[in-house]
Amino acid sequence: MLLASTILMETAIAAGLKASASDEYGMSQRGGSVVSLVKIGEFKSPLIGRENSDILLAFEESEFYRNLMFLKRGGMAIINTSKDALPEEVERLLRERNIRIQKIDGDGIAKQKGMIKASNIAILGYFSSLGIEPYSSANITRTIVERTKGKFVEKNLEIFEAGAEKGRGK
Amino acid sequence: MHEEIARILVENGAGLVYATNKGVEKGLRSLQDEFPHFHYELCTNEKIAYEQALSCAYASRRSACLLSTEGMYEALDPLMSSAYTGVIGGFLVVCVRENDVSATPLGPFAKLPFIVADTIDAFRSAVEFGFTISEKYETPVIIQVAPLEDQPSAGSFQETASIIDHRASSIEHPVSSNEPALFTKNPNRWAATPKFRYGLHRALNEKIEKIREEFEGYEGNQATVATKTGVIADTLSSLEFYDEDGSILRLATVFPLPERLVGGFIDRVDIVFLEEEYPVIELQIADRSKVRANKMQYSYGRDKPQEFMHGMYVVRDKLGPASSINMAHGIKKREPGRKVIAITYEDFFFHSGMPAFVNTLYNNSSFVLLVMTNRREEELKGVLRGFGFENFHHLESVSEAERFKDADALTVLFCRGII
Amino acid sequence: MTETDKGNKKTDAEVMIGNYAIARGFVEAGIELAAAYPGTPSSEILPGIVEFKQREKMDIHTEWSVNERCALEVAFGAALSGHKAVCMMKQVGLNVAFPGLLKGRKRAIKGAFVIVSCDDPGPQSSQTEQDTRLLATLFDIPVFDPASPAEAADVAYYAVQYSSEHKVPVIIRPTHRVSHAREAIPLYPIGTRTVALQEGIQRPFNVQCSTFNVKTEQIKDTGRKPSAVSFQQSASSNSPHSSGSLTSDSCELLADLGIVASGMSCSIVADVLSELGLAEAVPLYKVLQLSAVRSEDRGSRIEDREAGSPPDASLLAPRALRSFFDSVDKVLVLEETDMVIEAIIGDSKKTFGRRNGYVPAAGELTYDVIRDVIARVANETKTGKSKFVPDLTIEDALKSVHVQPRPPKLCAGCPHRASFYAMRRAFPGAVFPGDIGCYTLGITMGAVDTCVDMGSGVTLGAGFYDAFRSEEKLLPIVASIGDSTFFHACLPPLHDAVSKNKRFILIIMDNGTTAMTGMQPTPQTGITVDGLFNHAMKIEDVVKGLGVKFLRVLDPYDIPLMVSTIREAYTYLSRQPSADSRQPSADSHQPPADRRQPSAISRQPSASTLLPPTSSSSPHGTDGSSNVEHRTLNVEQVLSPGPAVIIARRECILNAKLKPEEIIDISAIEKDCIGCKQCIIEFECPALVFDEETKKVRIDDGLCIQCGMCLYACHKQEKGKKLQKQFGKHTTKPKPK
């Protein structure tokens, strides 16, 4: 199972940075929550506390709410949602905490390309267009190619590119 | 002796007692004549005994299981889990010390109240106290007792008298061990998933503190302060020598530690020698600057010279009942060319040998397994057939095993007796 | 300070989880045998060993053992006989395996023997938060506590050598955060790993204390190049390499507050100290190993009591730790999951920890928890004025947002769901002893009442029978276990229950795999971890071999058949002569001629509660008790009336897609919905979603596999109506608010 956290980690390492990740296992297949953490730099542990995180990638809107307390003031969030606006109180909070929020319909993009389960890749594609080193489109693409097996590579790259286009378009 | 233990349990209201030692059977059966509603059962292994007794305690019935100290470790998995779920009916886990293995480490490891009794009277008090604590705090309670035949003879006349008296009173006023069962469904407790286990853990920690307070006043803990040199031990009878006129704290409740009692004792002396085999009391003492903990070491024992039988390398149950099967399998996986014979006993096969045998079939190794039987050869054969295995042979005497010394397929031999 | 003069021998680095890092360390160390039973968080280690052995073309016997005790005894047997062997399990698996370790730990090992026991703070996926280090400390077994995946690889490599050198079993205990963390792990050719483990004061605290090195033997292996391993400790006085001497008497005060930590907690502490700006003010001492066999300590363990001998606590605590402890004013101890190092130190007056309530005594030490504790203690010791103030406006803003709780559930289409539904339909008021696996999730359907440990489904079934035996009517007891669990823990208890005629119903939920832990194969399939096949065995044959008389095998998707079979089993059991309340004697294992004489009146079940069996399609044996051929049965064997066993067999839907003919049109669920929510309450399929706006149930296409089971649960559908009519309405759950 290729996790988004693995892609992010390996891209950073390939770029010469130190990185480590922590994933929660076990109940995820039975519909439970999955949260991954990726830390890049001279950290000793892959774990974080409240309001530590620079970036929050939420592959589902409910996960965004569940993990919002990890995002620091001035951080950035990308949410997989087809909505234009989140609830009023949340939008206000994000403004107050100076959080840059980006909404993208990853499900829609993946569905269009015929692989609904790959909506995470669309989000990563979008993320890659934001110019945050080392997460350029080229770098992440390279990792995906290296780690994805055979027949899925093409499709994954298509979806990734569609997400990236959305990002460049904005 | 086991009969005495069982009697005391029943007199204190235990309705069901589960044991494993065949030697207790006669005693338990005669108790049943006296107490008609009393259920006792001998189980194939200790885990079965523990879990059945535990379920009765879940169903609000006072129960007990009676194991050896070594056998306690066979029930380690349910022991640990049951500390979190707790019980409703009183549940005493009585372990009898039959060799040098002590079960005291299980007190702090499992977080279960642990009382050591070294005389029959101490055991009686412990049972009464134990059931009270068990029901008040809804937790299993462990009582470890030494073989009572080893009691010093001084005072035994008194002891006999008290046993007789007690019996007389018990016949007149039989304790009912037949209260109705009641199981109240509460899956967040009895079937707690990890998230709920966290809450149970917190509740367990609180229980232990309250029980600690109860232990401060337990009569089984006896402190005598005389000289400035003190000794703390859970059983005086195991000490090789001690100064009877010195300061002694005979500590029955080894977990949780009654801190005021122990701390107070230490305060009043200049140096304390702590005698125990494992650092159970030691690790609970908060300040050990005055404490010298002497671990009673048992010799490591010399390994016997390697046995051979008809040229086959003999593997015995060195790691526990039927462990020879797993060990032989491990050896054969690395040394397929070596001729190996594993030797076990029918009781041990039923105790733990079945999964081991399945493992051998599943993971594919071949050796000769010699099962020394008593009466259950046909039953064993039925079980093996159920595994899809038919290559077993009956031997009239062990010497016939020589026929199989070059067997290259997994082979099971049955023979009556003991070797 | 490393000993190697071989330079940097690594070939590559690869990103992998901690469990794979351990596997890598073992394979590089030249192990010959690895045995395990799946258990989160340890399950990935064995597959890692398989992968690396294939890559490196090593001859290592790897096996999924039937249970942890087998895994340990198999490995231990090989180690006693001169081989390097390892076994892996989760921490409660060590409970199962422990008797073998207890009995054998004093035997001199000729090869090497390492046990990996993965602890689970939280707990995230276990029934206890027990601390393997405590068990090891109580029983004098060396135990390592790696703080990161990279360290875990080195520890695994070192532990094999350590065991071999000292001839003792060694335990490695990672926690789940180490096992499942991911980082780049250097790979070395076999036998050449450069290991420099460090225990003691961590940088950046620049007290250059003296060090001592424990040089271990080179790997004695066939032709492999030797490597060097060093194990450093700082703050010890016993070395010729000292660059400044620091003895326990002459310790200068390093700081007001020091922290002693181990494992992932230590790694988190380092990050927290950086975040709070306390890294310069608070020295951190890292513990890596407990219960070590240290040559300089060994003599003193059996020491006689001299007046001037040091306090005994130090015999458990390494001297370096004691020196550190003496060199700071106050100490905060952070460790998981229990109070071990804190207890070993034995000086509570200057210690902040679990004993005095500063560190929580239950639950994981998360980053947040550690940050709060350090900030609090730092303030109280006037070390620093750091504080982390959480911004609670986040929680306030989220109050208005409805976030769907996501408790774990059985997958859509899971055959266990069908089984549990049938069990509740058959006997809504029964007692349901459950067991450990995916099927534990039957709790939310009201079909699992107890779950103690592996195998407790059977034993609690038998025990409840005893507890309620004096009742008039036979209590319906419907126990459930899985197929892997059956082999792991249920053979002795089922055999024992049969010999005692315990009258309960046992459902073996056979989905052909060990699902919860990641779909590992079982002995029934005969497929091993290497993908080889040797010997398969059918559960029904094993059950027959144990002497069970009432045995059915059926497809749980056939819910009406399940229901009627369960009821049939109950009828069968309650018609048996009641078991004599006296204990059968030890020789009752022989089939005595008079054993079947009823000693009490056998009870006729009352007409209102039981219906004649309505089994639809199953072939029956001539006596109606079994639909299984007696392929392997010894026909002279007397069969017992109880327990009754039903094998509910259908492959796990994560493994096997539905066949085209099994795909059902379930559109009627949406079309006919009246919003009664019974399907959601009683059936709980995650694909059934109650739409708050339309007040009706809709099907989530992304999850639904169209198994059609929900048609039984919907009271608007014929199947649901039929079931209701036959077996009575049951209102077991309160209506939703």
Note down, in words, how this protein is organized.
The complex is a heterotrimer of chains A (170), B (419) and C (737). Chain A is 43% helix and 18% strand. Chain A has 170 residues and is of the alpha/beta class. Chain A has one domain: 3-Layer(aba) Sandwich (Pyruvate-ferredoxin Oxidoreductase, domain 3). In chain A, the strands form two sheets. In chain A, strands 3-4-5 form a three-stranded parallel sheet, sandwiched between helices. In chain A, strands 1-2 form a two-stranded antiparallel ribbon. Chain B folds into three domains: 2-215, Rossmann fold (3-Layer(aba) Sandwich), CATH 3.40.50; 222-295, no CATH class; 308-416, Rossmann fold, CATH 3.40.50.970. Chain B has a seven-stranded mixed sheet with strand order 2-1-3-4-6-5-10, with helices on both faces. Chain B has a six-stranded mixed sheet with strand order 13-14-15-16-18-17. A five-stranded mixed sheet of chain B has the order 7-9-8-11-12. In chain B, helix 12 (280-284) links the parallel strand 11 and strand 12. In chain B, helix 1 crosses helix 7 (120-137) and helix 13 (323-334) runs parallel beside helix 14. The two termini of chain B are 28 Å apart. Residues 150-176 of chain B have low confidence and may be disordered. Chain C is built from 24 helices and 22 strands. Chain C has 737 residues and is an alpha/beta fold. Chain C has a seven-stranded mixed sheet with strand order 3-2-4-5-7-6-14, with helices on both faces. In chain C, strands 10-11-9-13-12-15-16 form a seven-stranded mixed sheet, with helices on both faces. Chain C has a four-stranded parallel sheet with strand order 17-18-20-19, sandwiched between helices. At the B-C interface, helix 2, strand 2, helix 3, helix 5 and helix 6 of B face strand 3, helix 3, helix 4, helix 5 and helix 10 of C.
